[in-house]
Amino acid sequence: MENTLGLEIIEVVEQAAIASAKWMGKGEKNTADQVAVEAMRERMNKIYMRGRIVIGEGERDDAPMLYIGEEVGICTQPDAKSFCNPDELIEIDIAVDPCEGTNLVAYGQPGSMAVLAISQKGGLFAAPDFYMKKLAAPPAAKGKVDINKSATENLKILSECLDRAIDELVVVVMKRDRHNDLIKEIRDAGARVQLISDGDVGAAISCGFAGTNIHALMGIGAAPEGVISAAAMRALGGHFQGQLIYDPAVVKTGLIGESREANIDRLTSMGITDPDKVYDAQELASGETVLFAACGITSGNLMQGVRFFKGGARTQSLVISSQSKTARFVDTIHLFEQPKVVQLY
Predict the structure, then answer these.
(1) d(CA 10, CA 44)
(2) Is the pLDDT assigned to residue 341 strictly greater than 80?
(3) How far, in Å, CA of 206 to CA of 290, rounded?
(4) What is the pLDDT of residues 138-158, one digit of tens each?
(5) How far is the C-alpha of 146 from the C-alpha of 124, rounded, in Å?
(6) Architecture in CATH of 2-123+288-335
(7) Theoretical Cys-Cys bridge with 112: which of 96, 224, 275, 297, CB 3.0 to 4.6 Å?
(8) SS3 assignment, position 334
(9) In angstroms, rounded to a whole number, what is the distance separating the alpha carbons of residues 145 and 149?
(10) Coil, strand or helix at 324
(11) φ and ψ at 68, to 5 degrees?
């Protein structure tokens, strides 16, 4: 799967990032997201595959493109039988976030990305559009930290695993009222907190790389993005756990579903019989092969954002594979027209 789709999925996220970056700083988050969706879908439909969106642009909001359940790829076209060989056909599940951090793009802030994860059919957890409690940590702490432990306990474990004093640890937390107690506990334990306004996929993945100065992600964020993060962390060998949050009173910022009871019923209807189950990365991204791809829209810890020059643009992307156990950074120059000069820096 990596050999067949590796380059193609990089181009998918690149095109989404370029389209969205044109709206950077214009205060139009919905437009920045819409153009990313359109560009991602257009490039996906040129790939020789039969893909199904399992995490996309809203579970129940009638999104016209990249909605959950939509089929994408050349082999989903009405006349596909004439040019798609069933014996060669790649059937995959796809989780997408064409513009992770729409507010970050709209206001010119760092850390927005176009991201996706793919696996064999059935290989990605079809997370409901709920929230998720998350814990991400470096590979050295895999299986040792635990989402059921307190932040204080996990910081002590991280300190031992990484051979770093607690006051050298940096924990990323989304700036939300629901996290006030968590932030206080982390600081009281002696660690440092890096607050982000949006976009926790990049924060989770940063835990998987040495040198980012991010040692953990803690707190509650969107569940679909949790699956995408888990796919990347599984391939990197990092620690990731997620637990669905179905009680609107916990998240304090609104939740799909009118009540805790209604949300539990909805989970039951989706075949989730244990709503409090803690999922690890292997369960959220269970396919034999998992690929993750991201392209920076605005610059962040891992990737440069899109840089435009006359007649083109330069992007930096990341593709992570569980198959080859690699994380590749890809630097690409896109020529929109025949340039007089190719901008390198």
Answers:
(1) 11
(2) no
(3) 18
(4) 999 999 999 999 999 999 999
(5) 22
(6) 2-Layer Sandwich (3.30)
(7) 297
(8) strand
(9) 8
(10) coil
(11) -65, 125
Domain ranges of the chain: 2-123+288-335, 131-284
Write b or e for each residue in 245-281: b if 16 or more Cβ atoms lie within 10 A of its Cβ, otherwise e.
bbbbeebeeebbbeeeeebbebbeeeebeebeeebbb
- The CA–CA distances, whole Å, from 67 to 70, 94, 109, 183, 222 equal 6, 11, 27, 35, 16
Count of residues for the chain? 345
> Residue 225: pLDDT band by 50, 70, 90 thresholds?
very high
What's the rounded Cα separation, in Å, for the pair 14 and 226?
Answer: 21
The pTM of this model reads: 0.92
What is each CA distance from 98 to 21, 36, 207, 210, 307, in whole angstroms?
A: 12, 5, 22, 26, 18
CA distance 281 to 227: 8
Task: Say which DSSP state 157 is in.
Answer: H
Q: What percent of the chain has pLDDT over 70?
A: 94
**200 within 8 A of 172, measured Cβ to Cβ:** yes
For residue 22, give both structure tokens: 């044109």
Residues 6+ apart with CB under 8 A from 211: none
Give the containing element (helix H, strand E) for 327. strand 326-335
pLDDT band for position 58 (cuts 50, 70, 90): low
Distance CA 58, CA 38 (A): 15
**CATH fit for domain 131-284, picks 3.40.50.1100, 2.40.110.10, 3.40.190.90, 3.40.50.10210:** 3.40.190.90
Amino acid (one-letter) located at 116: L
Give the pair of three-digit tokens for residue 269.
């209807």
What six digits make up the tokens of 167?
């006051």
